[in-house]
Repressor-related protein (Pseudolactococcus piscium), 63 residues
Amino acid sequence: MITVTQEQAKAIRRKQADLSLNIEQTAKAIGITYITYKRIIKGNYNTKQSVYDKVMKWFMAGY
């Protein structure tokens, strides 16, 4: 399991806001469920490597 830190969660929320996406749209764009995304953006969340990789790939796209 890998932990999504508070700082990472904040950066992910900021990108979501920059793209003017809601939670459902962001989760769909990443390829994860709405519930998992809600947990991730709170920070300090332990997740599987595959989910972490999807989130970080989405986050890094365009930067």
Q: What stands out?
A: Helices lie at 6-18, 23-30, 34-42, 49-60. The chain has a mean pLDDT of 96. Residues 2-60 form a domain with the 434 Repressor (Amino-terminal Domain) fold (CATH 1.10.260.40). Residues 12 and 59 are 6 Å apart (CA to CA).
